[in-house]
Amino acid sequence: MKYETLNGTRIPKIGFGTWKIGGGSYADSSQDERSLAGLRSALELGYTHFDTAEVYASGHAEELLGQAIAESGIPREELFITSKVDPANLRYSDVLDACEKSLRRLGMDYLDLYLIHWPSHSISLGETFRALNQLIREGRIRHVGVSNFDVRLLEQARAESESPIFTDQVSYSLADRSYVRNGVLSYCQKNNILLTAYSPIEKGRLRGSTTLRSIADAHGATSYQTALAWLISQPRVIAIPMSLNPKHQAENLAAAEIELTEDEIERLNGLA
Ligand SMILES: NC(=O)c1ccc[n+]([C@@H]2O[C@H](COP(=O)([O-])OP(=O)(O)OC[C@H]3O[C@@H](n4cnc5c(N)ncnc54)[C@H](OP(=O)(O)O)[C@@H]3O)[C@@H](O)[C@H]2O)c1
């Protein structure tokens, strides 16, 4: 595995997403066995960074993740757990309440990273960060971050936060370079902020170009692995693919071992 180290914290370049664990927008307990099997195999394969959110399956994704981790017996300090507060809960007391509920569902007493899931148009970042700063001081969260923030919002978040902004989690893949074009990637790289790439393999719909396939073939890898290897070849970029299929989970982890050449990276850069 390759890692990024930020403010003394080491985080793997490839983590595990949990959207669709336990349902979609709503909890669907008929999916529990499938979801738990997916989480168990991810833990057994060695994933240590898990990304979840209070809205995923209305909190049920957090419950199942907490259950799978508890059953695994893996010490809490060996894992890095990210959750997110919904934009509807960005008022001071709602943030504190949302964080406590996430911790309860996960069965944990701290989060490694807590993100504002989407910016709010009506609640000031100052009010939200009053709560996030307090959660850091109280040790309920170790790091704070944001998601779906542009550069202007990132600058505001940095000004309101008492601790460094750890990450901006945004959509980033071979096909989606919008956060490169809007300057977020270079802003993060210049200011020591991780860019966490969500939907990094385009929700499983990656379109394999001839270039992508030929580079993948040269490494004996799949196009999905090569797309992940390209993302994490970039400084300060980590990725959180999601898969319930143990074969895909193992392939995604193994993507961290692929060493792309400068020429291959240039050719993949040119695919946009
Ligand atoms: N902050 C935000 O607003 C936000 C938004 C979206 C997502 N996220 C986070 O990012 C995570 C990942 O994004 P995502 O779930 O949207 O998309 P993704 O990881 O790009 O794609 C997931 C899909 O790809 C398939 N897949 C995974 N690995 C594969 C492989 N090696 N080969 C072939 N197919 C593969 C999976 O199917 P199988 O199960 O069949 O493998 C699944 O259907 C989410 O789970 C969530 O934690 C955050």
Map the helices and strands.
Blueprint: E1 3-6, E2 9-12, E3 16-17, H1 32-45, E4 49-51, H2 60-72, E5 80-85, H3 92-106, E6 111-116, H4 125-137, E7 141-147, H5 151-160, E8 165-171, H6 178-181, H7 184-190, E9 194-198, H8 210-218, H9 223-232, E10 237-239, H10 246-254, H11 262-269
Parallel strand pairs: 3-4, 4-5, 5-6, 6-7, 7-8, 8-9, 9-10
Antiparallel strand pairs: 1-2
Helix pairs in contact: 1-2, 1-10, 2-3, 3-4, 8-9
Bound molecules: NADP nicotinamide-adenine-dinucleotide phosphate.
Number of strands: 10
Report how far the terminal alpha carbons are from each other.
27 Å
How much is the radius of gyration in Å?
18 Å
Structure class: alpha/beta
Principal-axis shape equals: globular
The biggest beta sheet, please?
A: 8 strands, parallel
Strand order in space, largest sheet: 3-4-5-6-7-8-9-10
Low-confidence runs:
none
In short:
Helices cover 41% and strands 17% of the residues. The protein is an alpha/beta fold.
Word description of this protein:
With 272 residues, the chain is α/β, with parallel strands linked by helices. The chain is 41% helix and 17% strand. It is built from eleven helices and ten strands. The strands form two sheets. An eight-stranded parallel beta sheet has the order 3-4-5-6-7-8-9-10. Strands 1-2 form a two-stranded antiparallel ribbon. The chain starts with a strand and ends with a helix. The chain has helices at 32-45, 60-72, 92-106, 125-137, 151-160, 178-181, 184-190, 210-218, 223-232, 246-254, 262-269, and strands at 3-6, 9-12, 16-17, 49-51, 80-85, 111-116, 141-147, 165-171, 194-198, 237-239. Helix 1 (32-45) crosses helix 2 (60-72) and helix 2 crosses helix 3. It has a single domain, classed as TIM Barrel (Alpha-Beta Barrel). The chain binds NADP nicotinamide-adenine-dinucleotide phosphate (NAP). Residues 17-19, 51, 117, 147-148, 169, 198-204, 224, 240-245, 248, 251-252 line the site of NADP nicotinamide-adenine-dinucleotide phosphate. NADP nicotinamide-adenine-dinucleotide phosphate (NAP) binds next to helix 10.
